[in-house]
Amino acid sequence: MDMPTFEELRDLARRDPEGFEVLRTELIEDCIRQSSGCSRRRLRGIQFVIDARRRVAGSPMKALLDIQAMMHDSFLDLRLAIQGQRLHLEPSVSTGARILPFQRPGH
């Protein structure tokens, strides 16, 4: 299914909100169907959470902010995971240096 332009989607949402929701659901389902088998289950789970947040949000703006926060948290988790992997991949540097004890003057 071809993706409509933003203007087409905006016009449809204004003119026919129920039709817009049907199209939105079809486009999401089409995208999930086209994904690899191992990703499909995860995508369906994410979409379930998104749909649930939209239902309980109370307003489109609240839904947008909730979903945006969810995406931001997910991004931060991914960033931390990648940084953690980098820390584990960097070889530990062994200098072989000898540690000298310092004595306080006057003791």
Distance linking N and C termini: 82 Å
Question: By helix and strand content, what is the structural category?
Answer: mainly alpha
The topology string of helices and strands comes to HHHH
User: What is the helix fraction of residues, given as a range?
Assistant: over 70%
The low-confidence runs, each spanning 5 or more residues with pLDDT under 50, are none
Q: pLDDT average, as an integer?
A: 88
Rg calculated over all Cα atoms:
26 Å
How many DSSP-defined strands? Answer: 0
Largest sheet geometry: none
What percentage of the residues does DSSP assign to strands (E)? under 5%
Number of helices: 4
Shape: elongated
Question: Can you walk through the features of this model?
Answer:
- The structure is a single chain.
- With 107 residues, the protein is mainly alpha-helical.
- The protein is built from four helices and no strands.
- α1 crosses α2.
- The longest helix has 30 residues.
- The mean pLDDT is 88.
